[in-house]
């Protein structure tokens, strides 16, 4: 806990939370207000994780996927609706059924034999359409939902909801939540965020870039961690849902957006698209910017990517 003329700064780390390390930083008028805000943020994350966790068989999300819940609650409906909209906007580059493709690659890694591009393209074709529809606040099943996975958007969405619980409350000047790289800042003064170099993710090296961030969110996507090792060949775990094949042209994608859920999904989409298309995609969305590290080591920034602070 530190204090200055801008108030008292309280910071705490929680692990495991959302399957990762979550840090919460609150600047408030006094210590009690800052600590209370941090506890409210963590409590909301824990509440939403209990509903949406795919790793807890008794969660509402797990039970709905198995068909044991016919009318899911508002949180699941909202998240499924958001995922469906981004699936359409991204032309399938973001896909809640990408786990089907990942499962095949995990089997290949265990067997030591890579699938063919034709096999993966055929598998990708089987998941082209979503197995559900959201209409008037209700979810209608249109197929097998047991393999749905919203991990690529849920973490950012939960961070957004948690920060909203305390944003604008009396005595709170600044809030920062970082859930394993899905980061949301709310406050009057910019902070500087370092972006991990995906070529050396485990080394103590300078960041790939530093970027100022104020009242915005940031998320990154790369295949640097948890690579797929198949028959001695390393593949990115980031797959193109349209082809089922690992991404080779982009080493890392970082997105800035007004909220963490949008940053989360934009980072996924622009990392799958060809570099020029990814930059254009970011430019067409209000308040969005991206930085791409191409396979040749060159960095490509979209038009709104901020200059170093």
Q: Could you characterize what this model shows?
A:
- 34% of the residues lie in helices and 27% in strands.
- Helix 1 (31-52) packs antiparallel against helix 6 (151-164).
- It contains eight helices and 15 strands.
- The chain has 309 residues and is of the alpha+beta class.
- The strands form four sheets. A nine-stranded antiparallel beta sheet has the order 1-2-3-6-7-10-13-14-15. A two-stranded antiparallel ribbon has the order 4-5.
- The model has no long low-confidence stretch (mean pLDDT 95).
What key phrases describe this protein's structure?
two-stranded antiparallel ribbon, alpha+beta, nine-stranded antiparallel β-sheet, single chain, 15 strands, 309 residues
Briefly, what is this?
This protein is of the alpha+beta class and 309 residues long.
Gap between N and C termini:
26 Å
β-sheet strand percentage: 25-35%
Total beta strand runs:
15
> Pairing-aware structural class of the strands and helices?
alpha+beta
Residue windows where pLDDT falls under 50 for at least 5 positions: none
In one word, what is the shape?
A: globular
Biggest beta sheet attributes: 9 strands, antiparallel
Major beta sheet, strand line-up: 1-2-3-6-7-10-13-14-15
Order of helices and strands: EEEHHHHHEEHEEEEEEEEHHEE
What average pLDDT do the residues reach? 95
Radius of gyration: 20 Å
Number of helical segments with 4 or more residues: 8
Share of residues in helices: 25-40%
């Amino acid at each position: 806990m530190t204090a200055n003329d801008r108030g008292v700064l309280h910071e705490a780390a929680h692990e495991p939370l959302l399957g990762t390390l979550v840090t919460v930083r609150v600047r408030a008028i006094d210590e009690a207000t800052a600590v209370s805000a941090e506890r409210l943020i963590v409590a909301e994350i824990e509440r939403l994780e209990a509903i949406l966790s795919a790793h807890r068989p008794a969660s509402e999300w797990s039970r709905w996927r198995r068909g044991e819940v016919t009318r899911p609650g508002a949180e699941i409906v909202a998240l499924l609706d958001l995922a469906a909209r981004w699936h359409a906007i991204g032309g399938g580059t973001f896909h809640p059924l990408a786990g089907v493709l990942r499962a095949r690659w995990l089997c290949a890694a265990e067997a030591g034999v890579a699938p063919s591009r034709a096999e993966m393209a055929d598998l990708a074709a089987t998941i082209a359409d979503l197995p559900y529809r959201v209409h008037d606040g209700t979810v209608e099943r249109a197929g097998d939902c047991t393999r749905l996975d919203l991990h690529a958007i849920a973490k950012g969405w939960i961070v957004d909801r948690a920060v909203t619980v305390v944003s604008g409350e009396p005595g709170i000047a600044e809030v920062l939540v970082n859930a394993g790289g899905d980061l949301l800042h709310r406050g009057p003064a910019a902070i500087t965020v370092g972006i991990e170099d995906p070529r050396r993710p485990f080394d103590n090296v300078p960041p790939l870039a530093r970027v100022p961030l104020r009242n915005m969110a940031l998320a990154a996507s790369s295949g640097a961690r948890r690579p797929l090792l198949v028959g001695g060949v390393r593949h990115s775990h980031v797959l193109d849902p349209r082809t089922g094949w690992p991404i080779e042209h982009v080493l890392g994608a970082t997105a800035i957006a007004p909220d963490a859920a949008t940053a989360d999904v934009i980072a996924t989409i622009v990392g799958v698209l060809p570099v020029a298309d990814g930059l254009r995609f970011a430019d067409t969305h209000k308040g969005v910017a991206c930085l791409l590290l191409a396979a040749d080591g060159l960095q490509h920034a979209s038009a709104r990517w901020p200059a170093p602070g």
